[in-house]
Amino acid sequence: MKTYRISNLLRHSRTGLCFCSAVVLQYYELQVYYNRNVIRGNTAVLKCTIPSFVREYITVTSWVQDSKFNIYPTTKGEGKYHMLPSGELLIRRVDDEDKFRSYQCRAVNRLTGTTLLSGGRAKFSVTDPPVASAPRPLEKQASMQVRKDQTAVLPCYVEGNPPPAIRWFRQDHHQLRALAEADDRIYRAGECLIIQHVVESDAGRWVCVANNTAGVERMDVVLHVTSPLNVVIQPSGQLTVDVGGKATLTCHVSGSSPHLPATRTWLKDGHVVGPGGEALVLEKVQREDAGMYQCLVRSEDDSAQSSVQLRLGAAHPQLLYKFIYQTMQPGPPVSLKCIATGNPTPHITWHLDGFPLPQSDRFVIGQYVTLHGDVISHVNISNVQVEDGGIYRCTATNRVGEVSHSADMRVYGLPYIRPMPNMSAVAGERLYVACPVAGYPIESIVWQKDGRRLPLNRRQHIFPNGTLLLENVQGDPDRGIYRCTASNKQGRTATQTLPLNVIAPPKISPFAFQMDLHLGNRAGVQCLVTNGDLPLTIEWRKDGGPVDMDVSVQQLGEFTSSLSIDSLRPHHAGNYTCLATNSAAQASHSSRLLVNVPPRIGPFTFGELIEGVRTQVQCVIQAGDPPLTLRWLKDGVTLPPELGIQVMQDDFSSTLAIPRVSRAHAGNYTCIAGNPAKTASVTAQLVVSVPPRWVLEPRDRNVTRDDSVIFHCQAEGFPTPTLTWRKVIGRQPNEYQDLSIHGRGVQIFPNGTLLIQPVLQEHQGQYLCEAINGVGAGLSAVVSLIVHVPPEFEVKSAQSSVRRGSSQTLQCQAIGDGPMSIEWQREGVRFPALLQPRYEVKGTPVKGGYLSELHITDTAKSDSGTFTCIAKNPYGRAERIVHLQVQDAPGQPQDLRVVDTSSRSVQLAWLAPRDDRSPVLQYVVQYQQESNSR
Q: What is the mean pLDDT of residues 698-704?
């Protein structure tokens, strides 16, 4: 005996979770459960029993009667046979003929697609109890669970004598409420109550009352309505959090089930993380926390999940790998490496003793970014020399910040100091100077200035590593030649000099324009640089750009510059800045020039706009004295906030922006500018052209011939779209024919609705509805009209005669769409219920219809009568009547007698033959003279 282990597998992706279950295929059989004795006139209930280990994957699809007649499920069934969507077969009004029938159930395995018939054939007997009996339940179902929007079938299986009458009620509190008669959603189908598209308010107690002359039986069914679990993580989609920030994911669960509460499980990249609570909190987000998070919710009979992707936002650079302190002999190669991460991706730079790396063929710097966004940078030094020693520093920088690491690489050898370039310091600032010493070991590093060993005052500091710090740099005291000397224990030394220049930054004496300047006045200011080393450059800017050509600028010596305007005009107003620059720094001072003039607004226009685009206009005050005010009106009133119009304003202009233009934005927009003297306004019209969009888009239709069909085609837009209907007439693209407004059976209404009444076969095809208003490409939709033809007989009635004992074939050929079937009836009784061995029915599909032949061998007089063939397809039915006359030789006349005689005539009378084998066409009277008879 083999043992199978079945496990649930979990797989995740960026779109969600996937659960896979392994199922072992095992042999199973279907059996039919039924009541073997059914009271006449009652309902027989047949159930298809499925083994529990495969029940989840098996669906009962049909019942087979006598191995050839299939019965399929339906929610509406008042006929004799009714298969419920749940799989049961109801056989109503049981009579003697039913006990000769056999039934099997057919089911399909949804996993493999294979079908299986039940092993045995169910047959039942029909009983006639001698006395009346009260209704008795065949089975009781106290409760039923149905998912929302599905169909509920509430059974009421009872039997009794006489057959009970069934009524359904809804129990509200302690009262029973009868069901509404005209309800397409909740209705009675025989013994069952059907509730389609179940809603939560359908939950509760439903009562079935069965009664007959012998008694009453009540059966209660409690309906539980469940809704599928629904899981939503807030925030949804993607969540971006900066490194070090806090992330909170909340798992909201909705849905009803008797087995709630459901359990929550949090997963990250498919692995369980954290407790199963409603919220998952990450206090300080780290780089490894990025990924896909899922909240998996399970109940006993349902499961659902939601996911969110946690992405890292801005992250300060971090060094994942740092090179180490080294001491070595000259000669071998060395590689220094730093690995950094951050968001945005950082850039790594290298320094040696605070200076850029030496320009040497022995130094190679490399840097690249990995697939994970890490930056790897390295410095490779071939054939290390003594002068390569020192403090190496790697610095990783992005827009968030920077991080650095430094370590000493010591190379055994005599002291060596790399040359130091000329250096400039800014007066008043702090200055660090590192002595680039190589060689190992070094006993001491000494700084000197003008032959004197430092420090000479409290502003000078020497660190153990030889770095010189100058606090609050001064001009003459700190300017000069600095000498750095490194020595070892053997007294070997190395020295380099550093020329240091101290530059005083420029400083500007404040200036200002007069406040009461008007058009035509003269104006001027002077820019005096009171401090700062030469060489100095002085320039003027207006509003960040060059000054106007009619503005005079004069240089008054090395430290002064003047700006003057002979006659003020509106364009002279603005912010004037004096910039003084030397090699140390740049200084600036600004003053605003106000030219008092009344406001004047430049014209603006929106242009041609289509719905959905962005637009903005700028209202610019070309002239006007401050203080100035700017505001906007739409159609004479303040801008409605619900339109989402954005207004951005500076001192002399206001920009009106609409991120997405819609029809509601159309109107007149007015910009109003004012100052204490006057107001001015400019108005522009915004016209929004809206391309057509569907209000009612046409859909494909299927219709039966001679019915009517309506295609709705309505579109809106601005200007109002023109709607046109065309019919496809060829196989090539764009082969269309315009439909006349009132063609044969065709009517087009002003709103674009197309009515075809009655629908003929020639109307079948494809139709194009097009909406055009000159904006965009327009709209068009091609729909199909499929005309279904119901069965039809060209000749509704026919006569047929045959001699007794001969064979005769009755034919019925119907035209119409398939699938089609033809059944025969004789004197209103359906075949094959009365089939005899001499009768044979054959059906054959033919072009455009179906042919059925009833062949009768060895005809007898009893075969005479009216035969009806009934053709059916999904779109209708039709009947044809055939009158069959079986003819035979007539019988002998009876009771021949003389009624009257005369000299020239005789009147005879007789009775017709007693049987009616065939109609008597004529009688032949013969006579003989009496003498001849002797």
A: 91
